[in-house]
Amino acid sequence: MNDGKGTGPLPKDADFVALDAATDAHARADELFVHGALGALHERASGAMDRRLDRLSSAIRQSPKEPGRRAASRRLRRFSGVAIVLAATLMTAWIFVSVSTNQARATLMASIQAARGLGDRRYEVRITSASDQSAPEQPEAVFDSNGPDFLLRVRAPGGHTAIAGKDSIGEWAIRREGGIERAEPRRAWPRWATADGEPIFADSIDKLLEVLTSGFELQILDSETVDGREFRRIVGAKREGASRGLADRVELWIDAETMVLEKMEMEWTHRPGERRPAGSADPRYPGGPLPLRAPERDGPPNRPALDGPPPPGGHRPPPPDADPTFRPPPPPGFEGGPAAARRGGIRKLTVSRQNAPEWAANWFSPEAHEDGMWGVP
Amino acid sequence: MGHPSNEEHLVEFEQLARLHAEMLSAYLRSLLGSSSMLDDLFQEVLVVAWRRMKDFDRSRPFDAWLRGIARNIVMEHARKSSLRPAASDPRTLDLLDARFNSFGASLPAGSSFSDGVDRLLRCLAALPAAMREVMELAYARGMRLKEVATALGVEEETVKKRVQRSRGVLAECLRKQESAS
Question: Are B138 and B145 in contact (CB under 8 A)?
């Protein structure tokens, strides 16, 4: 279709309502204005704007900063990544910085160094959506690392496996269509870290510190000893006014001896942009309202604060190759887009440390994962 | 104290973005004619705005600056991709910008675009029933013309004409309200 005014064919698959080609430019502009305003008016109930703004909040915190900080940010980003362990370690660092003295800070920095020098490490990420009754058995993602090298594998929508990592050459990703992407690997990074528009992990040190520093009110709980191991427990509640994408609550278990993060849970108990109940009166059409569409997602139930989930020690599963629930996904491929839509959004995200198996020498090289398969070390 | 921190800049920008979000959404929808790329472009516009905040003349209206960025980005996409905006000829674009400007200028001090859009509620309520019905199906329910036609048991062309007439009536109603204000 051509509108006869040089605007070209109009989208066929959208909700566009065609303009009358016979109208003059003034009338067309008027009509387009009303079209836009009506759209804005009617999307109020959908929560779409809240989601956009949450997504924006996440995006601009990842984008280059204003002058004066840009170069520093770039440098920081160069040496950082969307590294779960690093993020978690830094979270630990910030927590202790916030609640402890300078001496504690120095101790903590030493513990971070110690954690970095641990050698092979593996963390699993499980995401519980609002519609799930319990955490899934299979991890959504597995993060392996050794020093600066890491490998992140994510079960992406459609049965694909998103694979990205870093080796001695630099960051890389496996393209969805196959092949190794080194020029712009971040474009191929799985974005479950902002699944459903809600940031879960930061992608840079500066951002993480900014967010966490202002994000949570923290409290140290009593230590717990499990199987002879002592864990320091820290709980954080999102501060009022903090970014709405942040989890409402965070809880960490840290090995008191090694100071390594063993487990971290993030919980979302409230979701922005809740809609009016389906079928409720639509004040925009007082003359004869029709029921609105049912909400596309429901807010999660308000969950009571955790009163002490099982500590991580003693719950480490065997390595994946011995775990019958740990199966490689069927097809090779890469899903670089957002994570699969989760009904109701994310309710809880759990990061837990696992025993790292013996890895092949080239485990962190893209060539070892070029087939796009989950892989079994 | 020294200069505002980056976090303070971020907070200030987020407040501005929130204040003008509905206007930007409406403007993009007007430009595009559809909502198919709205989310991505909305984000792109505001990310670019954030990066260019140092260039923003704070004595000028932020909404007009934002629309300028949006217009450039949409036209850039139109040049480089298959995106076909509903408004792409300079004349219509200029008039559309002028329409947003005049609408904003008609609002009482301290009011936002969102407050002004509320005027549409009164205009919608004043529509004849047949028009109001088709507008609700097309906009509130997001139905395509064909679906509206099926739902109402009329020809698609009838729905199209009715929607066009309704938008014209609403445009006139809005202008009258602006004049009255």
Answer: yes
Comparing CB atoms, the residue among B32, B46, B132 nearest residue A285 is B132
Q: Based on the fold, state whether residues B29 and B58 are members of the same structural domain.
A: yes
Q: How far is CA B99 from CA A54, A123, B44, B177, in A?
A: 29, 55, 23, 14
Q: A83-99 burial by CB neighbour count: b if 16+ within 10 A, else e?
A: bbbbbbbbbbbbbbbee
What CATH number is associated with residue B50?
1.10.1740
A158 touches chain B (CB under 8 A): no
Q: What are phi and psi of B110, to 5 degrees?
A: 90, -5
This complex has an ipTM of 0.93
Task: Note the pLDDT tens digit of each residue in A105-156.
Answer: 443 444 445 455 557 778 888 888 777 777 778 888 888 877 667 788 887 7
Instruction: Select the residue from A20, A28, A38 to test the B interface by mutation, using most B Cβ atoms within 10 A.
Output: A38
Of B22, B31, B121, the CB nearest to A49: B22
Does A7 contact B92 at a Cβ distance shorter than 8 Å? yes
Question: Which chain A residue has its CA at the smallest distance from B121's CA?
Answer: A284
Write the residue in B43, B85, B92 that is nearest to A29 by C-beta: B92
**Residue at which a domain ends, from B93, B113, B133:** B113
Please judge whether B39 and A282 are an interchain contact, meaning their C-beta atoms are less than 8 angstroms apart. Answer: no
Distance from CA of A81 to the nearest CA of B (A): 20
* Pairs of CB atoms within 8 A across A/B: 217
Please give the average per-residue pLDDT across A259-267, as a whole number. 77
Contact A64/B21, CB-based, under 8 Å? no
**Cβ atoms of A367 and A136 closer than 8 Å:** no
For residue A328 the two structure tokens come to 């490689």
- Cα angle for residues B120, B123, B124 (degrees, 5° grid): 85
Which range of residues forms the domain containing residue B98? 1-113
Nearest to B30 by CA among A5, A36, A34: A36
- Same domain for B176 and B128: yes
A118: number of Cβ within 10 Å: 15
Q: Looking at the predicted structure, is the pLDDT value of residue A271 above 70?
A: no
Q: Which residues of B touch A7 (CB under 8 A)?
A: 84-89, 92
User: For residues B26 and A36, is the Cβ–Cβ distance under 8 A?
Assistant: yes
| Termini Cα distance of chain B | 43
Q: Do A60 and B160 touch (CB under 8 A)?
A: no
